[in-house]
Amino acid sequence: MKGKSVIELFVRHKVCDYIFEQFDILHINGPRYIVEEIDEYIAKAG
Length: 46
Known about the structure:
By secondary structure, the protein is mainly α. The protein contains four helices and no strands.
């Protein structure tokens, strides 16, 4: 996925808001965990 597509997906699903809201949990975990959480969030958001 190209950067522009990722940004559009993040904006559409408000992923940045999710990251800010979940920062305390996300920042203590590794990159794989964070990507899995974002994937799950997007899947649930539909």
